[in-house]
Specification:
Layout (H helix, E strand, L loop, with lengths): L1 H4 L26 H11 L9 H7 L6 E9 L5 E11 L11 H4 L11 E9 L14 H19 L3 H8 L9
Parallel strand pairs: 2-3
Antiparallel strand pairs: 1-2
């Protein structure tokens, strides 16, 4: 913020309030320069408060994600391999992009035992509003794609989707990736 406003870092004081978990709704810092400038002009402390409508329409959205999943499956229904590629649209500014790989790369298998996995994570600049930090960045997009893919695998084998999941569910006694 000091660099953006052309100030010495020592001249800025931010009083942070304990807000609990961020979960994507409170960690955005783009309002800080606005608050600073308002306080400077007014000569008084300021607080920025948004209504629910403003939060939903003016805050940072989660980032669009394209997920490609390819799996190797035995006729018995056992998943033997998985290759995953995710492409996250990060918006126009690299400094503001969420690091969705923090949530997605270790979910390659989801809740399923898969002995062989490959994961490729990409973030691309797009001419759009930057995505924001959201609870488990990238995880909900990937989990939705993963479970849809799991349904399709079961249906392709002519298996009940619950039975297919039961066959592949992680267990404490079997090794996984």
């Amino acid at each position: 913020m000091a660099v953006a406003l052309g100030l010495d870092e020592q001249s800025i004081r931010v009083n942070v309030t304990a807000i609990g978990g961020d979960f994507g709704g409170k960690g955005d810092t783009r309002d800080l320069p606005i608050a600073y400038l308002l306080a400077k002009v007014a000569g008084l402390p300021v607080r920025i408060v948004m209504s629910s409508v403003e939060e939903y329409t003016a805050s940072n959205p989660t980032h669009p994600t394209f997920v490609t999943i390819k799996s190797g499956v035995k006729h018995s229904g056992e998943i033997t391999a998985r290759e995953v590629r995710t492409v996250h649209a990060s918006g126009a500014y690299g400094a503001l992009k969420p690091r969705g790989y923090l949530s997605t790369h270790h979910y390659v298998g989801g809740a399923y035992r898969i002995p062989n996995t490959v994961f490729e994570f990409l973030q691309v600049y797009t001419n759009t509003v930057p995505g924001g930090y959201f609870r488990a960045p990238g995880a909900h997009q990937y989990t939705f794609a993963l479970e849809c893919h799991t349904d399709l695998l079961a249906l392709e084998l002519g298996m009940d989707t619950a039975e297919f999941r039961r066959i592949n569910i992680l267990s404490l006694v079997k090794k996984t990736v």
